[in-house]
Amino acid sequence: MxxxxxxxxxxxxGITQFVSDLVDAHLANPVLVHHFKNSDTNRLKRIATEFVIxxxxxxxxxxxxxxxxxxxxxxxxxxxxxxxxxxxxxxxxKNKVAQREREQVLWLLYSxxxxxxxxxxTN
Length: 123
Ligand code: HEM
Known about the structure:
The protein is mainly α. It has seven helices and no strands. It has helices at residues 5-8, 11-27, 41-55, 67-70, 78-94, 99-110, 113-118. Helix 2 packs across helix 3 and helix 2 (11-27) packs across helix 5 (78-94). It is globular and about 40 Å long. The protein binds protoporphyrin IX containing FE. Protoporphyrin IX containing FE (HEM) binds next to helix 3, helix 4 and helix 5.
């Protein structure tokens, strides 16, 4: 039987590095960087790492809000959402993550699209 995705991504150390590279890619992405200009990058990396660890079947360490509530009113466009996936691919590549795990991580992120984009309405 296939090991849990959490293990195949290198457990906490592997996921911490992936998320760190993902956030760094956003900061270097001209389409996304303006969203993060007031961010505490280390805090964001820590919380996003907890989210991913929990989402891929690791220890349940994310205690934050759901993705719809987190991104409410941030005015995130569909184009920006795709740029986040592009940056995820850059970070997966950098961490030499294999094809099947890439597909699973990208699908996991993509599956949040409806929540994150519907969070943009102000009512
Ligand atoms: C599948 C995609 C995404 C996931 C899993 C995700 C996850 C997260 C998480 C876990 C946080 C931290 C919440 C907290 O501070 O309590 C966060 C914050 C944030 N996200 Fe996302 N996000 C996604 C897509 C996006 C997109 C497309 C944008 C647009 C650029 C975006 C912009 C932000 C911003 C600006 C913050 C707040 C940063 C801060 O407070 O320092 N996210 N996201």
